[in-house]
Amino acid sequence: MAAYAYSTSSSDIPTPRSISPSASVISGRSSQSSISNKRMSISSRRISASNPMSSVDISAIEEAMKMATLDTHRGYAQNHYGQVQQYAKTEYISQNQAAGYQILREPLWNKGLSFTPEQRVARNLTGLLPHVMENLDKQCERALRMIRSRQTNIDRYLYLSTIKDQNVDLFYRLLIDNAKEMMPLVYTPTIGDVCLQYSTLYTRPEALYISIKQRKSIKTILQNWPYPNPEICVVTDGSRILGLGDLGVNGVGIPIGKLALYTAAAGIHPEKTLPIVLDCGTANETNLKDPLYLGMRSKRIPVEEQQEFMDEFMEAAREVYPEMVVQFEDFESEKAFNYLDRYRHTHKCFNDDIQGTGAVVLAGYIGAVNLSGVPLEEQRLVFMGAGSAGVGVAKQLVEYYTKRGLSEAAARDKFWLVDTKGLVTKDRGDKLADHKKYFARTDNNGHQFRTLEEVIEYVKPSALVGLTATFGVFTESVVRALKASVDAGGLGRRPILFPLSNPLTKAECTFEQAVQWTEGTVLFASGSPFSSFSVKTGDHIVTHHPNQGNNVYVFPGIGLGAILSKASKVTDNMIYTSAASLAASLNADEIHKGLIYPRIERVREASIIVAREVMKAARLDGVSTLPEEQWIEWEEWGDVALTKYIKERIYDPVI
Ligand SMILES: NC(=O)c1ccc[n+]([C@@H]2O[C@H](COP(=O)([O-])OP(=O)(O)OC[C@H]3O[C@@H](n4cnc5c(N)ncnc54)[C@H](O)[C@@H]3O)[C@@H](O)[C@H]2O)c1
Ligand SMILES: O=C(O)C[C@H](O)C(=O)O
Ligand SMILES: [Mg+2]
């Protein structure tokens, strides 16, 4: 648990500093007295010390609130502090109420109806809340009823955001306990719609917004974040948001959503998460014409200028928050590859779309191959889409094959990548983007294959992966051709079909289509969630269960593992291990149902396994900076001890 000491010597603005270097700053279930509570207890101590009768004098409140809020973020704190003063000085509101009211207004302090009678008295909350005391489960029941009564998913999202703005514990309890229902609201697909309308839906800031015009102030802006020492940052420039293209600053919904899942799925304390959007202009004409658009109203800056901006951002981030892991998200492919190559050896960072997607699809592929009846070495894979995700996934799978004994050339030969111009070949006649060159085929004898049907006819694949951001490109004839090519011998071999594009409106085909067109034999995973469905055949009802092949199964565990192992960088092996451990995390029921990923309700359990194995990989690669004695102890006690260590450090709101 985090421990903080406040230096009061040189300035009236105390600065927090960790006094427990070996302890993680992720707060745990056992630590309901997280940093914010710590601040409050400091506040309360000072208040009661200054007045044993607990009638509070205004200067004590002022000082307490300074202690509570001025420690990290001046603008934010001054705002809070200003409000306290304002309330405290208002004729109709007593000084005691001011302190209590402030607690209820701070989403990280507010425990809603969970405050005990003692806490209500001690914190001047008496009468500010209805009489009942309710645990979080009860409060979730109320919230669920409200959410379910809303007509649209955007309305549900907005309701959830209101809860997040008021009571962080309640928001995360809801998300953790109702992952299947809530995740599609705070993440894909709803978050796609939210991003499209972000500038209209906007009510309050939830991220750092750094524009190219603020290049000289990046450090100051980072320091302005109200919570101390973030451990994980998700940053985008909004240039390729899901499959929706360039949304500019409106893309900030993605870092916000991903970080909500860092907390829900991996227990990273919400105070330790930092969403950032870099505003480099946008190519999106709709946004540029929208009078409410919140970003810079100008065209995207040139790639070179953004490179410099990015260098400055990465440098500033490392200087201001040296422990923070940076996750690159939804940068258009050229930048995605460049930034990953440029910073991966010098900064604690990884790219979710390239590496996270690579890992999650590898995990699903391992499971699917086991069920397919086609041995691993006989598999032939066609990828529709050769962008950051397509190439990232194909490379991860090549690594898997090489680890299983194939030469790199033989492994690479198993992949046929297709883009808008057809099969990617060396002699296609167009200038191939750098990231595609590795997979460009040379065995096509000068013939070019322009359509997916032609490619399937030529390759006879056993697996078809879609990362095109284009709805419906897996047509009936394509899927039927895939099935025919896999099971030409009538041996009951099953096709692997992964339409992975997000959100649902961009999926290459639907789950029902895939089942129908393959007579129920498909091994299916999609990026956004489809529902199970049942069909009656004769007396039998058969229920088909889809899989969600989304990087949410790995990025939270990769980030948590990197943080807890205090990794100096994120290595390829850490990413690879996340895939292998996810593939091994299915329970008996999931295996029995023929699933290839754990059910989404178990994403938190899976993330802990992934984090544990990522930590071990960090250690093996020599990038964990934890003390050696710690590792020796875990080696002695094994996974149980390491799992316990992780569980003790993760956020799990209770009461
Ligand atoms: N499931 C997941 O976890 C996950 C992870 C990352 C990305 N994605 C999704 O993958 C999609 C692509 O992401 P990206 O970063 O690779 O984008 P990208 O823009 O870098 O790549 C898209 C690729 O698809 C090709 N393409 C587009 N339309 C096509 C068509 N009709 N036929 C053939 N090829 C076509 C393009 O030429 C390009 O190679 C997005 O929808 C994104 O949401 C899903
Ligand atoms: O955001 C997601 O749901 C997955 C992925 O990172 C994407 O870009 O589509
Ligand atoms: Mg993404």
TrEMBL record:
Residues 22-48 have a biased composition (Low complexity). Gene3D superfamilies: Malic enzyme, N-terminal domain, NAD(P)-binding Rossmann-like Domain. The active site is at Y187, K258. Residues 1-21 have a biased composition (Polar residues). Residues 354-619 form the Malic enzyme NAD-binding domain. It comes from Coniochaeta ligniaria NRRL 30616. InterPro entries: Aminoacid_DH-like_N_sf, Malic_N_dom, Malic_N_dom_sf, Malic_NAD-bd, Malic_OxRdtase, NAD(P)-bd_dom_sf. The keyword NADP does not apply. Pfam families: malic, Malic_M. Divalent metal cations. Prefers magnesium or manganese. Keywords: Metal-binding, Oxidoreductase. Residues 164-344 form the Malic enzyme N-terminal domain. One of its GO terms (cellular component) is mitochondrion. GO terms for molecular function: malate dehydrogenase (decarboxylating) (NAD+) activity; metal ion binding; NAD binding. This is Malic enzyme. (S)-malate binds at R240, N502, N550. Residues 1-48 are annotated as: Disordered. A divalent metal cation binds at E329, D330, D353. Belongs to the malic enzymes family. Its cofactor is Mn(2+); Mg(2+). One of its GO terms (biological process) is malate metabolic process.
